[in-house]
Write a structure and sequence with these properties.
2 copies of one chain form a homodimer. By secondary structure, chain A is α/β, with parallel strands linked by helices. The first copy, chain A, folds into 2 domains: 3-192, inorganic pyrophosphatase (n-terminal core) (Alpha-Beta Complex); 197-318, Diaminopimelate Epimerase, Chain A, domain 1. Chain A has helices spanning 7-16, 30-45, 127-138, 144-158, 168-179, 184-192, 197-209, 225-231, 235-243, 278-284, 302-317; strands spanning 3-4, 20-23, 50-53, 78-82, 103-106, 117-120, 211-213, 218-222, 253-259, 265-272, 288-289, 293-299. In chain A, the strands form 2 sheets. In chain A, strands 1-6-5-4-2-3 form a 6-stranded parallel β-sheet, covered by helices on one side.
Chain lengths: 319, 319
């Protein structure tokens, strides 16, 4: 049974605890890592022991966040998940905590309510926006480095203030974080203006292999195992790839299908424009997410998987 | 002799005048048009006659700004230029006003000081940010439509809050305009999330034909006459294309070579990162421009033109 709590109660709770473990979601992005890093640094700043853990190795591009990873044998008295919508998003290596999460700080409307306490702002575009308010409420000093961590979360989860989830409050907190020392130019260049060679190769692959369906309203890309072996993309590059065709004129739904480690199993990323509910499509195939960005895992051959997702897309577009 | 005035004096001056003509720069963009539209609508809102003029026909994508264009024989008592850095940027058809501009509202540090009075904020990323402050100072009501006009200027001149010119104040005014009714999602989709089919085809061509030189620090694309006939791109698409490879990791110089109408004659667009002077390279071949974006026209075969530009690039990189 999950108890929903507000920002004030969340702040009070964190101030009372020590030896805090902060959990990120698997395949971590800028928001889960930036928010976790900000919380860990802020807790350290008020004399508490705080560590971060993630199922995956932290991608090198996030090294600057200086995340204090948990060490073997650390004493843990309180477990907080950040930007983790559901238990299954923790990843296998964190499953030991599945039923031991004291507090979840999240912005996903689809949150699975798995934690003892939940601080949720489903109308916030990034967990980092909520974390900023929690840290302010706690009276923590937002150092320039913590501002960088939080700005990272907001930048990456809003596509640099582009997505429709951006609100006036997002801009106001963005302004405040810049005033506190967040390095706007450096972070924007890092995440939006320096495409790696692999990302360029992936984009080229996408341009040459994109399939169109339903009067070109649906763009679908199958990233084959061969292409992955050839390009060896970073997981972060794949996130960008799935949303790219959504920006093509006339495209309402963009789908990326990629093989999972187990043969005959695929991960689907669904990105939609204003008129289509990505989460509804993903949910029909056992997944979930946000209204504009969702995902699911489907077992089968590439042909049956394509057929399954295109059937759901057709159902949605012909409603 | 130009007199520099502050926002308060600018507001007072505008409140005293009537029959106001607002001039945009040629090849108009979202900032000059959005700022001019906002001023015209705000002046109309307080009972004044105000019209806009531009050398070029206003591109259809800006129709929603509802710009009140000046009509033949309109009485004009006061002329304001908006976002126009120099007289030569008015365009031939507005040259009659060259020495009759009473007030210039601008954000270009390079402003030519051609107007009687100049209200300049060189540290603002967009003229629209300044126009917002002028309209507030005038006590004009910022209607939802005026907010859309101003948000358009800020969005397009900051690349959606991406460029390094973005400051905390930009975010704060962005928030205020959203609160006043600016349609963030609609405008962002219009300008940043709707690549035309032709733009996508061009990008695909670029991805498949880009050549790399000098340890991949220089990316060069030859857009052939055949490709142009095949894709029939809009001129605005070509501007975007030339700067795209500059955002590839490691690329300091991006060059686009395209044929001019006359056989054996080529237009070169040069875009550079922080460390390379594009204008110096273009100047060596008889062209010119800005430090990060310049161009020139070269006569010869495609082989000799490539050789000529690569020689200049080599000179610059090996300095």
């Amino acid at each position: 049974m999950t108890t929903k709590i507000d920002i004030q109660s969340t702040a009070r709770m964190l101030l009372e605890k020590d030896n805090i473990l902060i959990l990120c979601h698997k395949n971590p992005d800028g928001d889960t890592l930036g928010s976790a890093a900000a919380l860990a640094h802020a807790l350290a700043g008020i004399g508490k022991k705080a560590y971060v853990s993630c199922h995956n190795r932290i991608p090198a591009k996030y090294d600057y966040l200086n995340i204090p990873l948990v060490e073997e044998g650390a004493e843990i008295d309180f477990v907080v998940s950040v930007d983790v919508a559901g238990i299954n998003l923790l990843g296998d290596s964190l499953m030991e905590y599945a039923h031991k999460i004291n507090l979840c700080i999240d912005h996903h409307g689809s949150n699975g309510e798995y934690a003892e306490y939940l601080c949720l702002k489903a109308d916030y575009p990034a967990a980092a926006q909520l974390m900023y308010e929690v840290l302010c409420e706690m009276g923590c000093e937002i150092t320039p480095h913590i501002a960088d961590c939080l700005y990272t979360g907001i930048l990456t989860d809003t596509g640099c203030f582009k997505y429709s989830s951006t609100t006036p409050l997002t801009h106001i907190i963005g302004a405040r974080l810049m005033e506190l020392g967040a390095q706007h130019t450096l972070l924007v260049e890092k995440f939006f203006m320096s495409k790696t060679r692999k990302a360029v190769q992936l984009e080229r692959y996408m341009m040459n292999n994109l399939e169109y369906y339903f009067d070109d309203r649906c763009a679908l890309l199958v990233l084959t195992r061969e292409a992955i072996l050839d390009i060896q993309p970073d997981p972060t590059d794949l996130d960008g790839l799935s949303s790219m065709p959504r920006d093509f004129e006339g495209v309402d739904i963009s789908i990326l299908i990629r093989p999972l480690r187990e043969e005959g199993s695929y991960k689907l990323s669904i990105r939609t424009g204003e008129t289509v509910d990505a989460c509804a499509i993903a949910s029909a195939l056992g997944g979930g997410g946000h209204i504009r960005a969702a995902g699911c895992e489907v077992i089968g051959s590439i042909e049956t998987v394509k057929k399954a997702i295109l059937r759901e897309v057709e159902n949605t577009l012909c409603q």
